[in-house]
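call fold(seq) -> C-alpha cells
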Amino acid sequence: MSFNSFAKEDEAAVIERIQAFGSVCVTGKPCSVKAPVAAGAPVEGAAPRTGEQVYTAVCAGCHGAGVMGAPKYGTADWAPRKAKGKPALYTSALNGFNAMPAKGGCAACADEEIKSAVDYMTK
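ret:
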C-alpha cells in the first residue's frame, strides 16, 4: 500500500487503525486467549442459576418493560398466561412465542434454568 498522499503522522494513524483486532482459534489447536462467554451464558461447571438470576440476565430486558407485548414482571399481564398452566408457559419459553425467541435468545441456558425463570416470573 502506498502512503504517498499521507503525512507521516497520518500514515501511522492509518496503520494503527487497520490492525487486526481478533484472531481465530481452531478446535483442537492451542489458543492463547479464552473465547468470550456470551451474555447470560452459565459458567462451565457452575451450579444451575436460579430463576431470579436467569430473569435478571436474560429476561428482564423485555419482561421488565413489556417490550413488544411481553407480559411485564410482577403485573396482572401474567393472569391469562398462568391460566394456560405451567406446561404451556414452559413450552412457550423454551420454543419461543410471538416476538420472543426460543429460550429468550439464551441458547446457552439449560432448559431447567429457563423453567426456573418462568417460575420466578409467575410466582
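Helices lie at 8-17, 51-63, 79-82, 86-95, 111-121.
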